[in-house]
Amino acid sequence: NAGVTQTPKFQVLKTGQSMTLQCAQDMNHNSMYWYRQDPGMGLRLIYYSASEGTTDKGEVPNGYNVSRLNKREFSLRLESAAPSQTSVYFCASSASPGQGLLYAGYFGPGTRLTVL
Amino acid sequence: GENVEQHPSTLSVQEGDSAVIKCTYSDSASNYFPWYKQELGKRPQLIIDIRSNVGEKKDQRIAVTLNKTAKHFSLHITETQPEDSAVYFCAAHSGGGADGLTFGKGTHLIIQP
Questions:
Q1: Which residues in chain A touch residue B102, judged by CB atoms under 8 angstroms apart?
Q2: Which helix (H) or strand (E) is A7 found in, with range?
């Protein structure tokens, strides 16, 4: 099993450009998440998807959109990138309470994004 | 929403000594508390977790304790080794939903040789 995978690993954008971060998991988890990690701020939730077909805002959703393409894939889109979105982005997945599995969140390797 | 406070932000201990990292949470409905270890440039990895119906859990040199009344939980690492050097994050999750974890801001653990 690959676990949680993300692409790309690194990206440099100019202010105003758009891009999509891709995430996929092969653990049959219902729930998927996007976090951003900034120095001294820990990990903050951007959006999550409790199950296929649903998405909800997290703590810091402004400037982002998401798509839960199917059970395996959850993408994060920046429509008009800003320097404040320079960060490391982590995708994660977990079993939901109804799946009868441990909740624990499993993280992808991260995408290091720089917006100039 | 949930708020998780983590202390200290940096902890330096001698190799072989014990390390303790403490977290408090605000939402009494939270019922799951994982700890993650993140090495430089790597992803956070789950090292131990505890549910609210358990007061203590141990896995070799790592243990976690939970005090629901006081709403705090702690990570204990005994006989520390150089490979324990990393940033450790605590987190909390409210029961019944799949709305993600709330993380503490992290503790940079430094093991001095």
A1: 45
A2: strand A4-7
